[in-house]
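Lab notebook: predicted structure, single chain.

Context: the supervisor wants predicted structures on file for every construct in the current expression panel, including those that have not yet been purified. This is the next one on the list. No modifications to the sequence; it matches the entry in the shared construct table.
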Amino acid sequence: MEASTGCILYEKDAVARLPMASVTKVMTLLLIFESIENGQISPETQVSVSEHAASMGGSQVFLEAGEIQTVETLIKCIVIASGNDASVAMAEYIAGSEEAFVEQMNAKASELGMTDTHFEDCCGLTDSDEHYTTANDIAIMSRELIVKYPEILDYSSIWMETIIHETSQGIKEFGLTNTNRLIRTYPGCRGLKTGSTSKAGFCLSATAERNSLKLISVVMAAPDYKARLKDAAA
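Prediction complete. Output recorded below exactly as produced.
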């Protein structure tokens, strides 16, 4: 997809409904940036991590219950390291509960015309058959995020970053490494979001810009991470 117009240049099985794993977080990030824009939160807002958020498995940044982090740090945890715990912490802070936030995600999908998408959680960890999207719908929400909030690319293009955990156990550093290797290997790539589970395979929504042409490439159900990167680059 060409980002500024939404024009689709190439597609294959674009409306096949498939699980999306952590590419789910594109919508989570979109709602976070909307909340910043409307003044509900700011990058400096301090968020306390709940027991529920801290209990998330899969990709995580090992937040502890009661730990406090800023919105900006949690955005980095979500987009760089794909932190499920950070995603749930933000969802709960914005909407009061993950369930209420997921309702907002589905409402936003409907508003954007993502007719083949349904979310069951805010991070993509679920195994539910009711959590699905299409390559086309991922491109739609990715476009909305990078066109309306281009500052996301300042975060999604970070290769490595260190955050600080301050908990009852003391202060310790934790390193984030970007899950999207394309930002290192493909000139012009600045993001956006990877995802993989045994059910979803390897997924990627990537964006790159060269000579003021900005493209979005979506790959779903790739057999391994190398195929995901190769197809997105192609």
